[in-house]
Amino acid sequence: MTNQLKVGLLVGRERSFPDALIAEINRRGQGVTAEYVSVGGVTMDDLLGYRVLVDRISHDVPFYQPLLKYAALQGAYVINNPFWRIADDKFFGTALAHRLGVAVPKTAVLPNHSHGSDVSSESLRNLIYPLDWERMVNYVGLPAILKPHWGGGWRHVHLVHDLEELWRAYDSSGRLTMIVQEFIQWDQYIRCLCIGQDNILPLRWDPTRPHYERYAGSHQPLAPALLARVVADARALNQALGYDMNTVEFAVRDGIPYAIDFMNSAPDFDITSLTVVYFDWVVNAMADLVIAKALGPIGGATMRWDALLRGENGA
Predict the structure, then answer these.
(1) Which DSSP helix (H) or strand (E) runs through 203?
(2) CA pair distance 203, 209, nearest whole angstrom
(3) What is the pTM of this model?
(4) 3-state secondary structure of 237
(5) 204, β-bridge pairs
(6) Distance of CA 260 to the CA centre of its chain
(7) Are residue 164 and residue 36 in the same domain, yes or no?
(8) Is the domain of 13 the same as that of 134?
(9) How far apart are CA 193 and CA 190, in angstroms?
(10) What is the chain's mean pLDDT, rounded?
(11) pLDDT band for position 305 (cuts 50, 70, 90)
(12) Of the candidates 9, 71, 10, which has an alpha carbon nearest to the alpha carbon of residue 301?
């Protein structure tokens, strides 16, 4: 057992996916063992001892974010890359997708409605006031979606039909940075399960159904051209953003898949959501990825300091 390479999982309340992933990795007997991470305070001389870390919770528990970056400094491969993931936001991601040729809703980022007490009017002298709301609405159209620049779980998301509704929703946003986005009235919705940046499983998905029924009917095949496009677009997004574990959602309007939500660093992989068939696919695909990374070359942060620590001249 001393020669076993260790994989650690950082998790929250979920049980089915992490339990199944740990069991599958350990069952295979390929010289890699998996376990839940147990950690308290960490000094800069502590050795964490993991070849791979799978992060399912640092978006809600900030202490884990420096821990994951420190693990990367020690050569661990972290899923998802903590440097890239923490730097991501929805406005940048949407603009990047547009540059990649992926169809996305028209999107604008808005100044914060409120600020802390240490921010005075002088701190905001670069901002144009009042905001040109008509320009924003003319750009994205109505109805529109107002949602946080960071965040997930459909929290603080508003569908607005006119300027009055937009203002009311914006006035309730507090210190959140918000984006306003074109509303895509879709005729079908596709969610791609993504493992390892290029292993893509597209499924029909219906966000209007109760949570545990959203994959109902997902077995129905997609049109070949649409299937090829969502796979290619999901792969391009994962590779550009560096996500090894993700879900990419497309709202399809008039045959065109618009990437709506594609930065899910800890996507819902619960068995009750996915159903047994897709749950097994995710567990096996993730076990393949994690074992390959554990057995492969050390590291994966692809940061400037990584080359310097190896003694390479980055000039």
Answers:
(1) strand 199-204
(2) 15
(3) 0.91
(4) helix
(5) 190
(6) 12
(7) no
(8) no
(9) 10
(10) 92
(11) low
(12) 71
Tell whether 267 is covered by a domain: no
Q: Which of 245, 262, 279 is at the close of a domain?
A: 262
Encoded tokens for 269: 């992989």
pLDDT for 249-297, tens place per residue?
A: 999 999 999 999 999 989 999 999 999 999 999 999 999 999 999 999 8
Amino acid identity, residue 46? D
Do residues 69 and 159 both lie within one domain?
A: no
Token pair recorded at residue 43:
């000094």
Do 177 and 247 fall into the same domain? no
Largest CA distance in the chain: 65
Domain boundary among 139, 155, 182: 182
Q: What is the CATH number of the domain that holds 250?
A: 3.30.470.20
131 token code pair: 């905001």
pLDDT of amino acid 153: 63
Q: Which helix (H) or strand (E) is 102 found in, with range?
A: none
Contacts 24+ apart (CB under 8 A), 154-159: 159/183
199 with 66, same domain: the answer is no
